[in-house]
Amino acid sequence: MKHFLPYSFGTVMESAKGASLRRRRKQLQAIETKSSFNGEIDSSSETREEEPLSPAARLFHEPTFNVYIIAIMGCKTRIYPEVIKANLEHTLLKHPRFSSLQVGDREMKWVRTKVDLEKHVIVPEINPDMDSPDKFVEDYVYNLSKTGIVKSQPLWDLHLLNVVTSDSEAVGIVRIHHSLGDGTSLMSLLAACTRQINHPEALPTIPVMKKRRIQHNTTFYGVFWSLVVWFWSVFQLILNSMVDVLMFTATALFLKDTENPLKGPPGLEFTPRRFVHRTVSLDDFKLVKNEMNTTINDVALGITQAGLSRFMNRIYGGGKKDEEPTQMKNNLPKHIRLRSALLINLRPSSGIKAFADMMKDTKAKWGNWIGYVLLPFNIAIRDDPLDYVREAKATVDRKKHSLEAIFTFSIAEMVLKLFGIKAASSLSHKILSRTTMSFSNLVGPLEEIGYYGHPMTYIAASSYGLPHALMINFQSYFDKMTIALSVDEDTIPNPHQLCDDIVESLKLIKDAILAEVPIKNNQGD
Fold first, then answer.
1. Which end of the chain is more exposed for a tag (fewer CB within 10 A), N or C?
2. How far is CA 276 from CA 10, 182, 280, 289, 470, in A?
């Protein structure tokens, strides 16, 4: 059977219709695969079709844990729905999760079905003379968060909005129920459906963490000190893990975050969400990372701490906007306990593979393999903006030297097996509702990519259905970083200001770095 690779239409014109669209279809390049699934139920793969849902997947069907992932993709050209549909049939629909129903109540199973793309790909009629296209897209996603997807069809949909916004020529919105997979696996899957703009047949690349090479000293003193360092490292690992598991248990039982302007009332998992985002230069993150010897994740956490501190300081100060960001008056109360629940992917990263190869690779784990990490945020006004990044690095370095994510995953799995899905759902809900926010940082493609030939300008990923009033997601793509917020408007009525505060914090930290560079150079001379 033949599959079709996405192609590049770098010279797509707004007026191209009819014959022009047919000419583009002829440019599709065919590749051979061994798949035989054509949308109908295939009796030869019955065992896979009747596979039961994993415990984590069933957890996301509980009323208080009904979570959807949303990815907003800005395009540099107009979107052609027929091209999208034609390619979906030969790529995404080949994945069992995206062409299966979730059947049953107690014992839910994946059952293969024929997918009607007309129900999954939604192309609304849009007024070309609207006053605010950006607000239209924002309201459209807000209204999406009021609803779910009916279980009579696979739990995903794609909305194509041919509206010109301030940062794109058109917008695609992918909505996927969390039971289909975690953020990392879904991002890998979507990336496998794209191709590089400059190399239309090449898959995008996503950086993977390199293992550090350790040079062993074979002398007596070298071996002795290596053993000392190893024993100390193991001791710290055990101690940190014990403390983190204790805090996790205390949070599940009674420990709550301090009441603060970002922590909303109970029932937030049922409220609609306002999604806003800002796209900044990834080079600014790399500048701070390289000069401070940190990671991109440290920088993201640092500017988030700074932005939250600025935002909350303004609220505690009566809502007045600070005229001098570098000379901010401190209105914050002392000892604010504010924690973020980080969902950590426990699956080994194998990089982006061709879609057909992903289906044949038995080593590629799919689904929700995630553990919790409770990350404290230091809310304070610092005289030196770089202190936010230093504090974030210290916190993350300690968390890296802990088995918290593995332990919390194991605890949740044990509760599920011993006490059932209701108890596991209750445990997860208590942990999340007693913290203030969610935070994630996803790594995206290093090159410019096209989604079935449509060049993309940004990717903004987020979610709804969790008991948090605030979710902050960082998503890198090519030379950009997109900061996406999902908020409960009753709790945070001005999310654009919070976005601006995070972006402004990045600028202040970058300026502080640039101010230090000449000093270092002079000292070196």
1. C
2. 28, 22, 14, 25, 11
Q: Which two tokens stand for residue 328?
A: 């901010």
Q: Which 3-state string (H, E, C) describes 302-348?
A: HHHHHHHHHHHHHHHCCCCCCCCHHHCCCCCCCCCCEEEEEEEECCC
CA distances from 463 to 116, 150, 175, 418 (A): 25, 18, 9, 29
Going by their DSSP bridges, the two strands 338-345 and 370-377 should be labelled as antiparallel
CA distance 270 to 466: 8
Tokens linked to 273: 């969400």
CB neighbour class for 304 (10 Å; exposed up to 12, middle 13-18, buried from 19): buried
Query: Which domains can be identified in the chain, with CATH numbers?
Result: 2-15+27-196 (3.30.559.10), 222-447+475-524 (3.30.559)
Q: Which residue from 522, 422, 436, 423 is spatially nearest to 487, judged by alpha carbons? A: 436
Q: 10 Å Cβ neighbour count for 172?
A: 23
For residue 346, count other CB atoms closer than 10 A to its CB: 15
Please tell me the distance from the alpha carbon of residue 144 to that of residue 110, in angstroms, as a whole number: 25
Asked whether the predicted pLDDT for residue 124 surpasses 50, the reply is yes
User: 97 CB contacts (<8 Å, ≥6 apart)?
Assistant: 110, 154, 180, 181, 366
**Residue 136: Cβ-neighbour burial (10 angstroms; 0-12, 13-18, 19+):** middle
Rounded CA gap, 162 and 145, in Å?
20
* Integer Cα distance of 374 and 342 in angstroms: 6
Sheet containing strand 156-161, strands side by side: 121-122, 156-161, 170-177, 68-75, 454-464, 449-451, 194-196
For residues 139 and 133, the answer to whether their CB atoms sit within 8 Å is no
Q: Which of 61, 95, 178, 277 is catalytic?
A: 178
Spatial separation of the C-alpha atoms in residues 192 and 36, rounded to whole Å? 19
Chain segment 428-474, per-residue pLDDT in tens: 999 999 999 999 998 899 999 999 999 999 999 999 999 999 999 99
Q: How many CB atoms lie within 10 A of CB 125?
A: 5
178 an active-site residue? yes
CA distance 121 to 276: 23
Sort 40 into a burial class: Cβ within 10 Å, 0-12 / 13-18 / 19+. Answer: exposed
Query: Mean of the pLDDT values across residues 185-202?
Result: 86
The answer to whether 56 and 421 have CB atoms below 8 angstroms apart is no
Give the tokens for residue 446: 């290093």
Beta bridge partners of 485: 276, 472
Q: Among 386, 231, 361, which Cα is nearest to 293's?
A: 386
The predicted model scores a pTM of 0.85
Give the residue ranges of DSSP H helices in 352-494: 355-360, 386-400, 404-419, 421-433
